[in-house]
Write the structure tokens for this entry.
Amino acid sequence: MKIIIVLLMYGVETVIFLLEERDKMENPKMIIDLEKFEKNVAFLVDKLSKQNLSITAVTKVVCAYPTLMEVFDKFPEIEYFGDSRIENIISYQHSPKKKVLIRIPMHTEIEEVVKYADVSFNSEISTLRLLNEEAAKQGKTHDVLLMTDLGDLREGLFYKEDLMNVVEIIQTELSHLRLVGLGVNLTCYGGIIPDETNLSKLTEYKKEIESTYNIELPMISGGNSSSLYLLDHPEEKLPEGITNLRVGESFYLGRETAYEADYEEMFQDVFTLRTELVELKIKPSYPIGKIGVDAFGNKPSFTDVGPILRGIAGIGKQDISPDAITPIDERIEIIGASSDHLIMDMTKTGKDYQVGSTIDFKVDYGSLLSSFTSKYIKKETIK
Ligand SMILES: Cc1ncc(COP(=O)(O)O)c(C=O)c1O
């Protein structure tokens, strides 16, 4: 879209020039190992399918990056793509997967939600009424799933009577909506671990709604990557009646997220963040002068360990949080960052790096998310 606007305003030569200049700029970049990613997807798809669970691949952390979406598209067992941003859902309209908006819609995006999402997650009557009106306008029936809050205290209907009241309104008043399921999200805000006790509530609600209204709720969505541990746990298990999981982080980073255990069969290094050194100098470790606040208004504290070899990479808090990346070379320690500069103690690396050298980092969920969101971090796929 942006390219089309620039094209209209400045002409084709300017657009070609901008794209060429951008391609020349190498770093920072996120290197994506597609083969490892595909193996991760294959492993989890197999695991979930064996348990008869339908799969929603959550695409938001990589901003629905097209090459990764193509890998998901190779697996027909993945029935749904789920994303919190309607922009990402719009970007993969060509995919055969059903598209699910997993964040409660905003009133100002109702038209796009009905147009581009096959299912949306909801918890508010006012929003459901707007979806119903819009679906009528577009001559459609829009599928909705009601989110319940089972204790994590993020989105969802917390009290059973509220849930049943919303179901009653959908069933009796909102003829352009079809209730297709119930869902819960845990381990996101309150850090609550999914277990048989809390997830069983979802299946109890399902039974009651199905028998009261004589309907079927095919999508009982029992959480995200933090519910995966229940598939292997000797004491706890996923309650019968849970039919779907929405998985993001585990596909990309190869671990479950209730206890943050890596899957041995998966790769944790699908993604590598590559940065470039713009300065490398021996300087004191303690700032000179009266200390006020840093660029972000925080009062910094320092330990004086004498002169150190300080490296600066051309990436900063505008792109990633310095706490959310880990240098692969263990001799390097991140000591801080401003918006555009990542500052590292490289004393232990001796003469191994020069200005212009690259430094690679492992990413966690937060830095993966912000790296894909940052337009300054280029993306490169390797096979
Ligand atoms: C409602 C909902 N479901 C599922 C997910 C996927 O979570 P995870 O990446 O931990 O699997 C998210 C994460 O953004 C979410 O908000």
Remarks:
- The pocket of pyridoxal-5'-phosphate is lined by residues 58, 60, 84, 102, 185, 224-225, 246-250, 257 (CB under 6 Å).
- The first strand starts at residue 29 and ends at 33.
